[in-house]
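We modelled each protein-ligand pair independently. The example shown here corresponds to the HMH entry; the chain sequence is given first, followed by the ligand as SMILES.
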Amino acid sequence: MKFSDRLLEKLQPIWRKNHTHPFVQEMGAGTLDPEKFRFYMIQDYLYLIDYAKLFALGAVKAADLEDMKIFSNLLHATMNEEMSLHRQYAARFGISESELENAAPSPVTLAYTHYMLHSAQNGTLAELVAALLPCAWSYWEIGKELSEIPNALDHELYGDWITMYSSKEFGQTAQWCIDLLDKLAEGKPEKELLQLEKIFLNTTRFEYLFWNMAYHKETWPADE
Ligand SMILES: Cc1ncc(CO)c(N)n1
């Protein structure tokens, strides 16, 4: 059994919560309040800046050129394709690029990105990949699911988001991360696999908190 199959079993209850979260459901139905999406988009941009740094750290920690190249491709795709979707949305909302970059991270954004960066900086290469895999994997699953809803891909506001995350290219980046973790987990003792599983499930749970944070536009107590 591949390590990712074992993870797939463990993550089911959390994914179910993610897929049925009102933010995701309403985005698919096209009824999500654009103000919630605007809030999400800004926070997600901040998230992606740090997420991209995980790929850069992966390139530093890679044991061979083949893996280094994968990380460099992932870094490039995140900064140039995924983040460009956010920049286009920001422009539609009248938010400038510097406003985007300089926005304040919400508590959940900060906790999530710092947990990922901590795992990436202090852990092994496998721990780094375990931290980032839920991001790509769960978005791909959500993207595919929403793309099957009639007319969802053509929605004026949410269509581009669904198109990006259900795309073949995004699926390929998720698959790279899955294959990489399977490769790095091969032959590892159970104790290390449990540590990878722990990190993986924590960032999977953070994915839920991120949807919830966006839906409720959660900020710091005195900034509400
Ligand atoms: C919070 C979050 N998780 C995953 C992705 C996919 O890269 C994203 N853009 N944002």
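The chain has one domain: 34-216.
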